[in-house]
């Protein structure tokens, strides 16, 4: 019987130890209540078989309360949110810089308005000078908008390079955390791995899943494997042969794979889509518009006569090709120096004639832009309208992704978050049980003492 | 559902952020008076407003052109009025001069008077605008239209047209050719001077006939100029109306409804105050002493 009493002391000690483990877990939970990405843990008490066997309680490693499904949805939602936020920010900046000064439509309208006035007094040097100033202003506004686009593309390109570098570091970190998780039960490492995977998805999109072996695999959109277990491929950028912009490559072993057009998420995906999509389209539309402006005005101007009777006078420097036309658009040097070179009269007519001027004004209503489908002003407005629409769409995407993300965060918090009230209640429970066990041990101790004294 | 401390704090923060952003947006709208200040605010409305602004600028240019044309037509009309008056006076002198009772010396006096009238007529017909350009020389505006004293026309027959709206042009000048069609008023006056000074009664009567024709011709020409002025006047009115319509339309597309925006701002401010109060309450609930 005494041997049994001694064994019961062990049961008591194990019980106290189990409650202590519970206190430790509850304390750790409360300590991490505000730690981002922390998943709460619970203690698993395992009851041992009671009499005739000894009975008692044991605890195993604390259980991390987290859902891989939820974590995976969080990662993909984080990729979408980063993408829409980055898109919205890049597009808004572009919109702001493109509309910072007088826009092309405004300057074209001013040019046509001044031509209408010059037509009423074609030989007046005042009205001619006003037209010439407007020609300069049109060229400036085209430059300004084209510069805004080029600058925004450059900035997006720089962000892509920086973020790809960061993503490559995160991939390496993810692989090392995989190794850590595989080697030992390490809930903190698992939490950190979830966090890193989420950050990585925020940069480059893609999907991460935890396989039955407990290892996380991170695959980019399009199938390139970035992290597999303890192995990570390298992400890098290299200048594109045609555009000079950064291409994104996955380097694994000796193989290099270009994934630029496959990255469909994260801030890198957003910047690629902005740089090669909206901004590139705006740039080529501006080139086309500049080309159309120069060729349509020159087409009319060269056919008519300047105040000195000369013909063949251009208003803009003739563009050699569409590409680069926006940056190259300039007022014709002769017209710039001498407003009398403005061809307002019909060929062979005196300076008081305005046939040429009327033809120039008529361009305001003619569909001479975008392959003969739009007027010059409408074409310039459509470029800004497209950017504005893209900004509005991106802002809507941000709102949608924020809602989805908030909902998922709420679900995740509901499952894995720490409720201090709950933990404090648990703490009281463990404390009470521990006190009871102490009483139990002291009772057995007394019984043993009595036995020993009575021997 | 488990509700954690973090969740309550996050929820309160999100509500604050959303309300704060609403207040900022509405404050911006109310203070600037603009609902649409950049394309993304409302791409469709912005595009439409911008198109109308372009139209407004063109309309302003057209309005100025109409104004210049009207000024030139007024100068033309003034010159024609002077010419009418000259021709009428010359007619009176010719009638008197054709009377058999008049002495040759009286006719010589008349010749002097008609010569003076001819100079007035030439001065009127060679009127210049404020830029120093001849009004009646067609598009050859730097060429004096009528030679002194012969009255031969040296300008051209091209009339100037201006845009009266974005797509329409109207004649806005009268070339001097209108004054030499049928009879040349100045040649007729010269003939009358010669006839009066040489006592040539037949010549005087013949000149009188031509003066009558010239008078009719001038009346027709003035009516023509009057018609152009009426056209310009209507175009000016249309341009002014269009400007005002466009202004109203741009305003309705881009400006805020002040009353509505102010009321929304008041609502948003209240919502923000409420969510701030809720945040304070949540944070106090989470204090360990009250758990």
Summary?
Chain A has 455 residues and is an alpha+beta fold. Chain A has 11 helices and 11 strands. In chain A, 47% of the residues are buried.
Walk me through what this model shows.
Chain A is α+β, with helices and mostly antiparallel strands. Chain A is built from 11 helices and 11 strands. Chain A has a 4-stranded antiparallel β-sheet. In chain A, α2 runs antiparallel to α4 and α2 packs parallel to α6. The longest helix of chain A is centred in the middle third of the chain and has 59 residues. Chain A is rod-shaped. Chain B has 291 residues and is mostly helical. Chain B has a domain of 183 residues: f41 fragment of flagellin, N-terminal domain. Chain B contains 6 helices and 2 strands, in the order αααββααα. A two-stranded antiparallel ribbon of chain B has the order 1-2. In chain B, a hairpin with a 5-residue loop joins β1 and β2. In chain B, α2 packs parallel to α4, α2 packs antiparallel against α5 and α4 runs antiparallel to α5. The radius of gyration of chain B is 38 Å and the shape is rod-shaped. At the A-B interface, α2, α3, α9, α10 and α11 of A face α1, α2 and β1 of B.
N- and C-termini, Cα separation of chain A: 13 Å
Which strand order does the major sheet of chain A show?
5-6-7-8
- Structural classification of chain A: alpha+beta
The fraction of residues assigned to DSSP E strands of chain B is under 5%
Q: How many β strands of chain A by DSSP?
A: 11
The rounded Rg of chain B comes to 38 Å
Poorly predicted sequence stretches spanning 5 or more consecutive residues of chain A? none
Q: Summarize the helix and strand pattern of chain A as letters.
A: HEEEEHHHHEEEEEEEHHHHHH
Just give the CATH class of the domain at 68-250 in chain B: Mainly Alpha
Radius of gyration of chain A: 37 Å
Mean pLDDT of chain A: 92
Distance between the termini of chain B: 19 Å
Question: Which structural class should the secondary elements of chain B be placed in?
Answer: mainly alpha
- The tally of strands of chain B reads 2
Low-confidence stretches of chain B are none
């Amino acid at each position: 019987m005494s041997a049994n009493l001694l064994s019961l002391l062990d049961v008591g000690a194990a019980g106290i130890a189990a409650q202590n483990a519970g206190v430790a877990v509850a304390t750790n939970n409360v300590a991490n209540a505000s730690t981002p990405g922390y998943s709460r843990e619970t203690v698993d008490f395992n009851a041992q078989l009671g009499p005739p066997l000894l009975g008692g309680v044991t605890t195993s490693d604390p259980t991390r309360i987290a859902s891989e499904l939820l974590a995976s949805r969080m990662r993909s939602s984080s990729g979408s949110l980063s993408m829409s936020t980055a898109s919205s920010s890049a597009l808004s900046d572009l919109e702001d810089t493109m509309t910072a000064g007088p826009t092309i439509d405004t300057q074209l309208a001013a040019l046509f308005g001044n031509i209408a006035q010059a037509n009423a007094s074609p030989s007046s040097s005042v009205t001619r000078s006003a037209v010439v100033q407007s020609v300069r202003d049109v060229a400036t506004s085209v430059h300004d908008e084209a510069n805004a686009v080029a600058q925004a593309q450059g900035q997006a390109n720089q962000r892509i390079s920086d973020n790809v570098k960061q993503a490559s570091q995160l991939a390496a970190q993810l692989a090392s955390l995989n190794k850590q998780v595989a080697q030992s039960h390490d809930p903190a490492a698992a939490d950190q791995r979830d966090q890193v995977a989420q950050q990585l998805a925020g940069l480059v999109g893609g999907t991460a899943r935890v396989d039955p072996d407990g290892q996380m695999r991170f695959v980019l959109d399009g199938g390139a494997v970035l992290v597999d277990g303890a192995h990570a491929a390298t992400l890098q950028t290299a200048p594109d042969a045609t555009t000079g912009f950064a291409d994104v490559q996955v380097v694994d072993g000796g193989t290099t794979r270009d994934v630029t057009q496959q990255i469909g998420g994260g801030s890198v995906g957003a910047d690629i889509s902005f740089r090669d999509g909206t901004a590139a389209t705006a740039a080529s539309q501006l080139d086309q518009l500049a080309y159309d402006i120069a060729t349509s005005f020159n087409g009319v101007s060269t056919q008519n006569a300047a105040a000195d009777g000369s013909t063949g006078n251009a208003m803009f420097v003739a563009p050699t090709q569409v590409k680069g036309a926006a940056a190259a658009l300039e007022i014709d040097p002769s017209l710039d120096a001498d407003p009398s070179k403005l061809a307002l009269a019909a060929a062979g007519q005196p300076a008081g004639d305005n046939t040429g001027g009327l033809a120039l004004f008529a361009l305001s209503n003619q569909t001479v832009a975008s392959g003969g489908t739009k007027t010059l002003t409408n074409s310039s407005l459509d470029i800004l309208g497209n950017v504005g629409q893209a900004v509005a769409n991106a802002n809507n995407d941000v709102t949608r992704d924020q809602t989805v993300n908030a909902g998922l965060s709420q679900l995740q918090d509901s499952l894995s978050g720490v409720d201090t009230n709950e933990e404090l209640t648990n703490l009281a429970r463990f404390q009470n049980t521990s006190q009871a066990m102490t009483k139990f041990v002291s009772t057995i101790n007394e019984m043993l003492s009595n036995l020993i004294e009575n021997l | 559902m488990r509700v954690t401390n973090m969740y309550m704090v996050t929820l309160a923060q999100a509500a604050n952020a959303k309300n704060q952003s609403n207040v900022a947006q509405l404050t911006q709208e109310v203070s600037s008076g603009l609902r649409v200040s950049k394309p993304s605010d409302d791409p469709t409305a912005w595009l439409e407003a911008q198109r109308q602004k372009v139209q407004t600028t063109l309309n302003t240019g057209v309005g100025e052109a109409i104004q210049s044309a009207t000024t030139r037509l007024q100068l033309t009309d003034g010159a024609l009025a002077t010419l009418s008056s000259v021709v009428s006076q010359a007619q009176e002198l010719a009638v008197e001069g054709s009377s058999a009772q008049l002495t040759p010396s009286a006719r010589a006096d008349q010749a002097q008077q008609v010569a003076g009238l001819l100079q007035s007529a030439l001065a009127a017909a060679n009127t210049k605008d404020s830029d120093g350009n001849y009004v009646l020389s067609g598009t050859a505006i730097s060429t004096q239209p009528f030679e002194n004293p012969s009255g031969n026309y040296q300008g051209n027959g091209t009339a100037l047209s201006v845009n009266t709206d974005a797509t329409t042009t109207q004649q806005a000048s009268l070339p001097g050719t209108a004054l030499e069609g049928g009879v040349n008023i100045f040649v007729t006056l010269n003939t009358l001077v010669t006839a009066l000074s040489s006592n040539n009664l037949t010549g005087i009567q013949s000149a009188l006939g031509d003066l009558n024709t010239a008078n009719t011709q001038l009346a027709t020409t003035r009516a023509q100029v009057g018609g152009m002025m009426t056209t310009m006047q209507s175009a000016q009115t249309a341009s002014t109306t269009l400007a005002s319509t466009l202004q109203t339309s741009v305003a309705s597309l881009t400006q805020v409804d002040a009353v509505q925006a102010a009321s929304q701002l008041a609502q948003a401010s209240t919502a923000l105050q409420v969510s701030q109060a809720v945040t304070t309450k949540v944070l106090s609930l989470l204090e360990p002493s009250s758990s």
